[in-house]
Structures are given as C-alpha cells and as structure tokens.
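Work package 3, deliverable 3.1, input record:
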Amino acid sequence: MAINIILAGPRGRMGSEAVNMVLNEPDFKLVACIDRKHDGEQLTDIQGLPNKDVPIFKEIEECFQQVNADVFIDLTIPEVGYYHTKTAMENNIRPVVGTTGFTDEQIVELSQLAQTKKTGCIIAPNFAVGAVLMMKFSEMAAKYFSDVEIIEKHHDRKLDAPSGTAKKTAELIRNTREAKKQGHPDETETIRGARGAELDGMRIHSVRLPGLVAHQEVLFGSSGQTLSIKHDSLNRESFMEGIKLSVYKVMEMDELTYGLENIL
Ligand SMILES: NC(=O)C1=CN([C@@H]2O[C@H](COP(=O)(O)OP(=O)(O)OC[C@H]3O[C@@H](n4cnc5c(N)ncnc54)[C@H](OP(=O)(O)O)[C@@H]3O)[C@@H](O)[C@H]2O)C=CC1
Ligand SMILES: O=C(O)C1=N[C@H](C(=O)O)C[C@H](O)C1
C-alpha cells in the first residue's frame, strides 16, 4: 500500500528536492501540496516542478478536508510550519518536519498533542546522516572537553539563527558537558555579538554567506589540544534519505520525536 503524502513548500530549495524524492520512491504517493501562491493549480502548472497532476491548496484545512493522507511533510518557515504541524496532527495525519526555528515551548506543545492524539510526528533539525553523526560525536567528546564553540555556516537566504542543527548540537552536548562559563571571566565585547550566542556558557557563531549550503564545525579545546568535528552538506540531496526514512518510521510511531538520531 502506498503512503499518501502532502508536502508544504514545494517551490522551496528543500521542498522542490523533496517533491522529486517523493515522486521517485515507489512506495510514496504525492497526493497534494500546500503553496500560498498557486491555490487551485496543479504541480505541473508551476514552472520548474515535475510535470505531474498533483492538486495545490493554499489553506491546509481545506486540503485536509478534501485529500486523504498518511504523512505531511513541512519545509516552510517556522510560524507556518508550527501551525501546519499542529493542524496535521489534529487531522490524524503524521507530520515529518524539517522546518527549523520552532521554540522549545512549541516543541513541547506539539509533543503533548502527539501524545493526546497518539499520532507519530518527527521533527528533525537536520535530516543528513552525517550531521547526526557530527552531533552524536560532539555529545561524546563533550564528556572530556567542556570548552566548546559551535560554528555553523549557511547560505544567506536562511531565516533563523542559530541554525536548528546548532541548537540541537548544544542540547546534546549539554547532556554530557560539565556546566561552565567559557572564556576569561572578565572578557568584554567591544563590538556587540563578537563572542557569539551563549547557551549554558557555550558559544554559537552563525556565519551567513552566498555560496554556502549547510556546514557546521564543533570545536573543542583543552590544555595543549583541540578537537574539531565537522560536517558539510554540499547539496540538498544530502537531506533526502533522512526524510525518506522518517516517512517510513513515522507510520509506525504514536508519539513525537525530536531529532533523526532517535530513529536511526
Ligand atoms: N531539517 C533539515 O534537514 C533541513 C531543514 N531546513 C529548513 O527547512 C526550511 C525550508 O528551507 P529552504 O527550503 O531552504 O527555504 P526556502 O525559502 O527555499 O523555502 C521555503 C518555502 O516555504 C514557503 N513559504 C514561506 N512563507 C510561507 C507562508 N507564509 N505560507 C506558506 N508557505 C510559505 C516559501 O514559498 P513563498 O515563495 O511563497 O515564500 C517556500 O516555498 C527552513 O526552516 C530550513 O531551516 C533546510 C535544510 C535542511
Ligand atoms: O536552512 C538550511 O539550509 C538548513 N537548515 C537546517 C538548520 O537550521 O539546521 C538544517 C541544515 O543545516 C540546512
């Protein structure tokens, strides 16, 4: 039996790649897309997207009323993605969410909703397996190195900073790192922001440049040595295997999980 999928954000950098992934996976069927600029049209009407008759809706409620689906993939922006994810679960459709920038409170709320509805939901700030390994290796290393700076680098069209991956990395590191405030106790910033964002005394630096895709280095230091753990996504195909796996896994789940590492 095919897994029926609705996808939001089909014209986006990630969404367009995901449309192709879904169309090319024999067990998946793309049954609708959510796109605020092409209400009532078909996928084939959008320039640059595959020549397929897949209906497009602007409003997610209308889409869920008219189209039966098993899984909903969101690759949009944080505010919209949160609303879409909530609405999908309310309609007993399992979300697979790549959109980053949700607040901690929003993730808790969505988790509670998944519990109430007994609906699977996967929110993963990074679907690239290499990035998940980079995060897990960093979690391991932080047990031995409590001084760490996370440097994430992305294309300059990215809306959220720090990246979802950097936040998730810091959360995993927090599991093993001895809490401490890093740097000199008397350090000052002569230009605001020079030391980056702070989370539990750790530092996160966000670089935005045209030409970049998605890159992160986790840099540890202790006396006489440094350790660098680095991952680069060179294109958006790197995220597709993770989304594909999540679609299969979410079909077997009845709660929310945050992070691809939980299902690998
Ligand atoms: N988890 C992961 O592995 C990855 C996650 N991401 C995340 O995925 C998300 C999308 O990234 P990316 O594809 O690069 O972004 P894009 O800007 O390329 O795409 C975003 C899409 O969302 C649509 N959109 C924007 N605002 C609205 C709205 N109000 N209502 C409906 N649709 C809207 C845009 O359409 P429009 O033209 O109408 O604005 C566009 O199609 C981001 O949050 C990013 O951080 C990215 C890469 C990997
Ligand atoms: O916006 C992006 O491009 C990416 N966003 C995700 C994030 O915020 O971590 C994942 C990846 O880094 C690409």
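Residues 100, 125-126, 154, 158, 163-165, 214 surround LZUJQKHR (ligand 2) (CB under 6 Å).
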